[in-house]
Amino acid sequence: MDHSHIVTRFDKDLSEIESLLVEMADLVAKQISDSALALQLGDNQLAKAVTKNDSKINRLEEKIDDKAIRLIALRQPMAEDLRSAITTLKVSNCLERMGDYAKTLSYRARKVDDFSAMKSILRSITETSEKIINMLNVVMEAYVNRDLNKAYDAREADQEINDRTDALFRELLTYMMENPRNIETCTHLLFISKNLERSGDQVTNIAEQVHYLVTGNLLEE
After folding, report:
1. Is residue 114 a part of any domain in this protein?
2. Average pLDDT value over all residues in the chain
3. CB 46 within 8 A of CB 37
4. What would the DSSP string read from start to end of 118-169?
5. Is residue 221 part of a domain?
6. Domain-located, residue 162
7. 220 domain residue, yes or no
8. CA dihedral over 74, 77, 81, 83, signed as positive or negative
9. Residue 184 and residue 5: Cα distance in Å, rounded?
10. Among 70, 110, 113, 125, which residue has the fewest nearby CB atoms (within 10 Å)?
11. C-alpha–C-alpha distance, residues 82 and 72, integer Å
12. For the whole model, what pTM was predicted?
């Protein structure tokens, strides 16, 4: 039996799935960027566009998962090939969650008419979103190239996101204590900050999947 044809076909199918994952990651990065920009500018139309575009990410996840499940069922891969196929399912789920967090951010951006009194907070949120996008780009490069060093870099960068979230929390508490009228606005910003932190956690999850993909072992804390 000629196994070379089967191997070649598996590699081709897997490559198609991974290309879809890269496309999905690019969409997620744009959603994060657009939602943060909508918040900063008070742009309700852009915020609504983010909400609408979330369906594109969901459809890509469904397409990726369908292809991956079919690949496993039809090709019955073993060892590293099986890890590759399973990892695509895990990565697509992480990306879909990040898309959900961006959509939630866009909802929050539309809840308050004017965030302008919180300029320093908005600036911090924008900077955090940019750092998360950079983390996502690094971890997807690690995934595509099976690069453990880049995966570790992306994972370690999450600590800065956590530190920034803690600092923002303390700053927002100060605003709320100074003026009770700030409570509603600050509450929305707290949720936004927390969702960005969760996006960073999803990048960490992808980095851990890269480690598993390359080594066959789960990454220990």
Report:
1. yes
2. 91
3. yes
4. GHHHHHHHHHHHHHHHHHHHHHHHHHHHT-HHHHHHHHHHHHHHHHHHHHHH
5. no
6. yes
7. no
8. positive
9. 61
10. 113
11. 7
12. 0.92
Range of the domain at 54: 3-215
In whole angstroms, what is the distance from residue 17 CA to residue 90 CA? 12
What whole-number percentage of the chain has pLDDT above 90? 73
Query: Do the Cβ atoms of 161 and 124 come closer than 8 Å?
Result: no
Q: How far apart are CA 128 and CA 206, in angstroms?
A: 19
105 token code pair: 């951010």
Count of domains observed in the chain: 1
pLDDT per position as a tens digit, 168-189: 999 999 989 988 888 888 999 9
Q: Is the pLDDT of residue 4 over 60?
A: no
pLDDT in tens, 33-63: 999 999 988 899 999 999 999 999 999 999 9
Q: How far apart are the first and last CA of the chain?
A: 44
Whether 147 contacts 141, CB under 8 Å: yes
CATH of the domain at 92: 1.20.58.220
